[in-house]
């Protein structure tokens, strides 16, 4: 992965990746969890302080920071970013849900009661 990200010094450009070493999977997979937390906050009509989105975004940023620290400490040798980012984001979301007593709702993806305006059966 490092050879692909840096372009292997062959004179050609490598595949463009965010900040030259973080791959698309390191952005997309935790991003889905952060998007889930935003959607859950929106459906539950939670504000930023009582929601999960700000916490998930902060945990993602901290996991990314720890990834870069580990990469620099290991002299540029490959280190999976998901090894740090996923435990930070998922651990924060699960521990916050457990503390608030909403872990079962988060884990089973049970959504707050909100009828769909496009469904005719729910309006009758």
Question: Describe it for me?
Answer:
- 15% of the residues are buried.
- The chain has one domain.
- About 5% of the residues have low confidence.
- It has 6 helices and no strands.
- Helix 2 packs antiparallel against helix 3 and helix 3 packs antiparallel against helix 4.
- The protein is elongated and about 55 Å long.
- The longest helix is centred in the middle third of the chain and has 21 residues.
- It is mainly alpha-helical and 124 residues long.
- It is 60% helix and 0% strand.
> What is the domain tally?
1
- Helix content class: 55-70%
- Count of individual helical segments: 6
User: Biggest sheet: strands, sense, closure?
Assistant: none
User: How much strand?
Assistant: under 5%
The parts where pLDDT drops under 50 for at least 5 residues are: 14-19
How many β strands by DSSP? Answer: 0
Classify the secondary structure makeup into a structural class: mainly alpha
Rg over CA atoms: 19 Å
The best one-word shape is elongated
Through-space gap between termini: 55 Å
Q: What is the succession of H and E elements? A: HHHHHH
Transmembrane segments: 15-40, 52-71, 77-96
InterPro entries: Peptidase_A22B_SPP
GO molecular function, one term: aspartic endopeptidase activity, intramembrane cleaving
Keywords: Hydrolase, Membrane, Protease, Transmembrane, Transmembrane helix
Concise synopsis of the structure shown:
α2 (24-43) packs antiparallel against α3, α2 (24-43) packs parallel to α4 and α3 runs antiparallel to α4.
């Amino acid at each position: 992965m490092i050879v692909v990200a840096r372009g292997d010094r062959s004179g050609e450009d490598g595949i463009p990746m965010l900040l030259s070493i973080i791959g698309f999977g390191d952005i997309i997979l935790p991003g889905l969890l952060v998007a889930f937390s935003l959607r859950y906050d929106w459906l539950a009509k939670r504000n930023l302080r009582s929601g999960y989105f700000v916490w998930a975004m902060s945990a993602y940023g901290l996991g990314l920071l720890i990834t870069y620290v580990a990469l620099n400490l290991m002299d540029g040798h490959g280190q999976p970013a998901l090894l740090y980012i996923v435990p930070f984001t998922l651990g924060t979301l699960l521990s916050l849900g457990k503390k608030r007593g909403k872990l079962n709702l988060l884990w089973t993806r049970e959504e707050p009661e909100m009828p769909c305006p496009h469904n005719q059966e729910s309006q009758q």
